[in-house]
Predict the structure.
Amino acid sequence: MTKTICGLAILALGATAAAADKAPVAAVPAAAPAGTPDMSKMGPMSRPVTKQDKKGIDELYKSFEAAMKKGDINAAADFVDFPVTMMSDDSKGVEKDFKATREQWIGIFAPFAANMPKDVKMSGKHTPTFLSDTLAVSIEQDSMSGPKMKGKWNAMAVVTLVDGKWKFKQMAEAGWGDMPAPIPASAKK
């Protein structure tokens, strides 16, 4: 009896879903319903993309990478809009994130910039998707090769246009979540 009731319930849900798939799509009302925001004045429709500044985002990546290759961590930090959200996952696959100050960010990246072996080659490609003229998401494909290490990975960045220059506002890569977030010097006292 229980199997029959469960079977009938599944058939009924399936029939409802199939009918919903065939239902005509409702037209978008000309005006926002009472109590909801007017999306022509607020929200994503109020900020349509009019200029995809791919050249500007390319320049951000080129300048950031040049500063890192020189080991100039302060110059690299100038391409970040602080506080910056750092996002990753840990060895168990649990998402971790925190907002890093300039001081914390430099503390994380300085060892990488200072200790990068000369025989390591890094390369990357990025593909931006513009959410507005001042906000974009960039999907990255990166690789590294050297005598002791070789690999490829994907990453993501949210970039913002600040005073006419693109900057990193969020950085995400897998696998860094087991590393403890740095404690700001002001909190150590």
User: Anything to note?
Assistant: Residues 53-174 form a domain with the Nuclear Transport Factor 2; Chain: A, fold (CATH 3.10.450.50). Residues 2-22 form the longest helix (21 residues). Helices lie at 2-22, 54-70, 73-77, 102-114, 185-188.
